[in-house]
Write a structure and sequence with these properties.
alpha/beta; single chain; Helicase, Ruva Protein, domain 3; Rossmann fold; 5-stranded parallel sheet; 5 domains
Length: 537
């Protein structure tokens, strides 16, 4: 992934042919940061793990079917789809030796930037790169403008998913009509935010917006809260109280958790909706009111009606239009922009971001509490991360990031010894993550402490390295000797920097060290996880 201080464009090159890959790299590497994938699985892994500015894709990746190898482009089109779904802003440039009109038309229909014939790669590259970078910048600017135009200053609806686009279309349509709306969805999806958005887009937007959670008020008090009461209406009513219906006159009244309303009070609500008037508790005078009703619930209203807990006639009154908001786990595209929104909300003016690995962890979580739970997690993360600038990594906030239920370690009866539990956690982390460096990020401890714990608990841990056979360096030529020195170094270190290799090779030029590291990347022995930082495979 490209660091924020990098001045170069980062390219992912997907090319299976070693000769063509070497030729293309020789053209690209002087001007750009380049990551290489030699087959479909490597490409898929890199796309999911890192961010790129542009993708160069050889469409004719070979696909094996038993003993046969097919090069019909289907594997390449599969990658096209994967890139479009995971990173829709990234321009894609297809490189191929094939130039059939049918294939070119199909490629262009996929929305790629251009099609380069391998033989003319060097000549076409400057024009293609200018076009790709302009397209990417234009897409980013369009997204920013779209977000700015749809998000009010307060109670923002923040989203990036097609599912929420549909909700916005529904909101726009129902807002124009002065009809009752029922919002459906799980707890924590932001019902009041949606209700406020409907109000803000409606002809009543200059009027008041009043909200109440019917499940949060004791049954005996909800009637007084909605309709108000006269002085002396009941014990403790020492003065007249104006109800929420009066306060919402000429505006919108939002009744959250409507299915929690007592059955006898539902009758009175139905009468208000039918006749547009009501009486305060203990009062005799009818008061006229002009209010739009928006309701919400996380329950299946039809089931509540069948169970005789909710009036069928009231249901028809409040559900003239229904808007369903999907749970956050079904629209994970919204998570990243919601996280940034909450960072801006609770740490305004800061330049804080979450690493791709943290974002992936958040996207993999089930979010039973939906957006409200995500907001709480971001608040916890910010309470631990001190400062207003930087990137947050898993090791920084391991205690704040939700863990899926299947990742939890069950504690059986009698096994409450803390050392035993610590051993189980370390063993599971070592099994789950490929390297110690990866495990410590999630355990929240240093590598040296992890090694001490492995020894202390007698944990048997096989690193899964390549062959540990020593090579006699004296028998190798100078280029091979340096490469083998790096290989021996890599065997002993999970992660390392370019500067480590410069020092290992007695202060060679930075460019020389990077060239050697690129050879190991091409060989699939190491991967570059960020600028100047590498990880053994």
């Amino acid at each position: 992934m490209r660091n924020s201080d990098s001045t170069k464009t980062t390219i992912l090159l997907i090319e299976d042919d070693a000769k063509d890959r070497s030729l293309i790299l020789s053209v690209l590497r002087d001007q750009y940061n380049v990551e290489v994938a030699a087959d479909y699985s490597q490409a898929e892994s890199k796309i999911k793990k890192a961010n790129f500015d542009i993708v160069f894709l050889d469409l004719m990746l070979p696909a094996r079917q038993g003993s046969r190898i097919q090069e019909d482009g289907e594997l390449g089109f599969k990658l096209l789809k994967l890139i479009r779904e995971s990173e829709p802003l990234i321009p894609i440039v297809v490189i191929s030796a094939l130039t059939s009109t049918k294939m070119v038309l199909r490629i262009l229909q996929e929305g790629i930037v251009d099609f380069i014939v391998k033989d003319d790669f060097e000549d076409q590259l400057p024009m293609i790169m200018r076009r790709a970078e302009l397209i990417r910048q234009g897409r980013i600017e369009q997204l920013i403008l779209r977000c700015e135009s749809r998000v009010p200053e307060n109670n923002q609806l923040v989203f990036a998913s097609p599912a929420m686009e549909k909700v916005i279309d529904q909101i726009t349509n129902v807002a124009r009509e002065d009809i009752s709306v029922l919002l459906l969805g799980e707890t924590g999806f932001g019902k009041e935010v949606v209700a406020r958005e409907i109000h803000a887009r409606s002809p009543r937007s200059t009027g008041p917006f009043v909200s109440v959670n019917c499940g949060a008020i004791a049954q005996g008090l909800l009637e007084s809260e909605l309709f108000g009461h006269e002085k002396g209406a009941f014990t403790g009513a020492d003065k007249r109280k104006v109800g929420l219906f009066e306060l919402a006159h000429n505006g919108t009244l939002f009744l959250d958790e409507i299915t929690e309303m007592p059955f006898d009070l539902q009758v009175k609500l139905l009468r208000v909706l039918q006749e547009n008037n009501f009486r305060r508790v203990g009062g005799e005078k009818s008061l006229s009111v002009n209010v739009r009703i928006i309701t919400a619930t996380n329950k299946e209203v039809e089931s509540e009606v069948k169970a005789k807990r909710f009036r069928e006639d009231l249901f028809y009154r409040i559900a003239v239009m229904q808007v369903t908001v999907q749970p956050l786990r079904e629209r994970t595209e919204d998570i990243e922009c919601l996280v940034q929104h909450f960072i801006d909300k609770y740490r305004p003016g800061s330049d804080i971001g979450l690493s791709p690995k943290v974002i992936r962890t958040l996207k993999n979580y089930n979010w039973p509490g939906n957006v409200r739970e995500l907001e709480n997690v971001v608040q916890r993360i910010l309470s631990i991360f001190k400062g207003n600038k930087g990137t947050i990594y898993p090791r920084d906030v391991v205690s704040c990031i939700p863990t899926t239920r299947q990742d939890l370690i069950p504690v059986e009866d009698g096994q409450y010894d803390l050392a035993w539990i610590e051993k189980q956690v370390i063993e599971k982390a070592l099994q789950h993550f490929r390297t110690q460096a990866e495990a410590v990020k999630h355990l929240g401890i240093s590598e040296s402490k992890l090694r001490r714990k492995i020894q202390e608990f007698g944990i048997i841990y096989k690193r899964g390295r390549k062959s540990q056979t020593e090579v006699d360096l004296s028998q190798l030529g100078e280029p091979e000797r340096k490469l083998q020195m790096i290989r021996d170094f890599v065997k002993k270190h999970d992660t390392f920097k370019t500067s480590d290799i410069v020092e290992l090779l007695d202060g060679v030029a930075n460019k020389t060290a990077i060239a050697k590291l690129n050879e190991l990347i091409d060989a699939g022995e190491i991967v570059r996880i960020s600028r100047g930082i590498y990880e053994s495979r």
